[in-house]
Amino acid sequence: MGGVKLNLIDLGWNQSFADKLDQLEIKENFKIARVAVEYKGMYKLYTENGEVLAEITGKLRYNNQFPAVGDWVVIDLLDNGEKAIIHKILPRKSKFSRKVAGDDIKEQVVAANIDTVFIVTSLNQDFNLRRLERYLTITWNSGANPVIILSKADLSDDPESKRAEVETVAPGVPVHIVSSLTGEGLSELKQYLKRGKTASLLGSSGVGKSTLINQLIGSDKMEVNNIRVNDGKGKHTTTHRELFVLETGGVVIDNPGMREIQLWDDSKGFDESFDDIKVLASNCKFNDCQHETEPGCAVKNAITAGELTEERLESYRKLKREILYMERKRKYGAEHANKLKIQELMGL
Prior knowledge:
Belongs to the TRAFAC class YlqF/YawG GTPase family. RsgA subfamily. Helices cover about 30% and strands about 20% of the residues. The protein is built from ten helices and 13 strands.
């Protein structure tokens, strides 16, 4: 077993997880560890005695129970602690999920036991309110609390106007303007990274997540790629999810930039992300109002009055259709769901 010894509390262990552990039947010699990195078929774990590489049991693999970065697991140390076998995954406090890439209708847990999700969007050409709404929906559904970071403030002439735009689609969500170049706003993030707390970063490639992590952990552990000047976009720097322990005791999990975010069972997160439209819809004349051409539609009236934008309503419709499609896909299969989707688009 390599590396320095770690304190389980610094890693995020608390009484809630201890209570969950007490409910499991485990052998006395088994230990607790947290998943730090997921490789192909292998996991790097952090334990109170240092780092160790591990594999899962055949039973977990057979049941499609795969640990994610941030999971707490029960392990059996082998070969004098040089390797380990993961026997159980503790119930998760929160999980960050999406549908697996491709046509398979399966859930992919990409990070677990997160307290705060930093949604990072840069103040250059990447700035996109519709993408932000999608990230908020996924974050709310994870069980974690979203915090929006507007990065690369040094590239914007008026970052406060961008903050105001963000606040229209994310009421009540903390928004921080940050520049890794000048250091602006970085100290404000420390309140979310106290001892025992876990934060995760989410954002598209080129928004400065790796640079931000380097600032937070105080070293250049994450490789940084420059963005293309012509379109403001960047290459993916991070190729795998990884958990970092800060000197202050907080934990940060990096997620690779995802070109294709797909929603997974996000009905709860959807309501949180579009709470303003939900409130307006409660005042519509008809309970099943689709906010199209129905009389007495409070949502359309709000657009006419300038209280809501047509773009936000269209984003609401698009994400709602996507969630409905995923629900049908899981229930009836892809072929039937595609037929219903085509019928709806054709107005049949």
